[in-house]
Amino acid sequence: MANPIIEFKNISKKYDDTPVLKKIDFEIESGKFYTLLGPSGSGKTTILRMIAGFEDPTSGEILFEGKRIDLTPANKRPINTIFQDYALFPHLNVSQNIAFGLELKKMSKTDIQAKVAESLRMVQLSGYENREIDALSGGQKQRIAIARAIANEPKVLLLDEPLSALDHKLRKEMQVELRALQQRLGITFIFVTHDQEEALALSDQIFVMNDGRILQSGTPVDIYDEPINHFVADFIGESNIVPGTMTADYLVHFDHKDFECVDAGMRPNEPVEIVIRPEDLDITSADKGKMQVTVDSQLFRGVDYQITGHDADDHEWTINSIHQTTVGAQVGLVFDPEDIHIMRFGEDEETFDARLDSYEE
Ligand SMILES: Nc1ncnc2c1ncn2[C@@H]1O[C@H](COP(=O)(O)OP(=O)(O)OP(=O)(O)O)[C@@H](O)[C@H]1O
Q1: Which residue numbers delimit the ABC transporter domain (predicted)?
Q2: Is the per-residue pLDDT at 208 higher than 60?
Q3: 109-122 helix and 168-185 helix, angle to the nearest 10 degrees
């Protein structure tokens, strides 16, 4: 990356003696939408708090535009944070909330007024200047929190699960708005969520985290199509994951047969896990399929059927198909060789880390 805006170099964090971040290395490119995605406790918020300056690393360096910032206090960093609960001041109205930080910066009254109006326009709430905070809906509060943050013209905006308090429909609407706003403003967004669908929909780049480590970073398509290990494949989207063994570069053995696949750079006889997404599978008659399963359930979802079944080894399979079947039926499964994704099997933490390091070199 030519000129990263933020760099984490070998960052570790311990609380007492418990490691919560382990050897975190990444670069953030200016003007893009980044998402830290992972289950609860994986370390997402700790990374965000370090970027903001609310938390110090135990070891390692944080750079901002090429210079160390881990010793710069939070209020001196060109970074703003939007918290889950918005942290709006309830006793101030909308424009006073937005003006608060600008007054601290000693901006003139006319400049503040113009900035408040511009920020409200950005979040499509022009005319709400004198509204009390209590008289706003959840989605409007969310937008005011964003307006307050962008009024400060930060270079980076940190968003810690900002949509989690909203109902499903509003959450979807705000996702579209956030993405559009980020593109309009061109500010770097770093967004924290444990919702994989949200991460796929919003991001230019996703960092998938578990247990204090970044397991994989990439575009939503990279991560969905080429998950690096079982955890990522399982966490992102729905997957069928079954054990297999490589027979040759282009052949993988599972369900007691060899299947053609793309070369994943594995050695012959190497134990692997294969991933096939439900939408890449279809059902056909038992004699025509590449493999056979017995149907355990079928759910009509409007656009398709979600079918589950099991093979002779009792591995479960999920298939999204426009074709209908019946519970208890034997059906064949069809799929393309390029839709079989192959992952290394049973790597311990150390081997996995060594592999990650080798990609970075
Ligand atoms: N101040 C603290 N003192 C001790 N342990 C902490 C502290 N803050 C966080 N932790 C621990 O660090 C780990 C990572 O926490 P963090 O909040 O970064 O995770 P997260 O991925 O953001 O989770 P969530 O989605 O639940 O917010 C957790 O095990 C948490 O209990």
Answers
A1: 6-236
A2: yes
A3: 120
69 Cα: distance to centroid of ligand 1 (angstroms): 22
Closest C-alpha residue for ligand 1 atom 29: 41
Q: How far apart are the first and last CA of the chain?
A: 14
Type of residue numbered 305: Y
Chain centroid to Cα 127, Å, comes to 34
Q: Which two tokens stand for residue 1?
A: 């990356």
Tens digit of each residue's pLDDT (9 = 90 or more) over 143-176 = 899 899 989 889 999 999 888 877 888 888 888 8
Residue 361: predicted pLDDT: 53
- Average pLDDT score over the chain: 91
Token couple for 54? 């609310």
Alpha carbon of 192 to ligand 1 centroid (Å): 13
Which atom in ligand 1 lies closest to the alpha carbon of residue 15?
A: 4
Type of residue at 329: A
CA atoms within 13 Å, Cβ hemisphere of 84: 9
pTM of the full structure: 0.88
d(CA 293, CA 309): 6
Query: Domains in the chain and their CATH numbers?
Result: 6-225 (3.40.50.300), 238-360 (2.40.50.140)
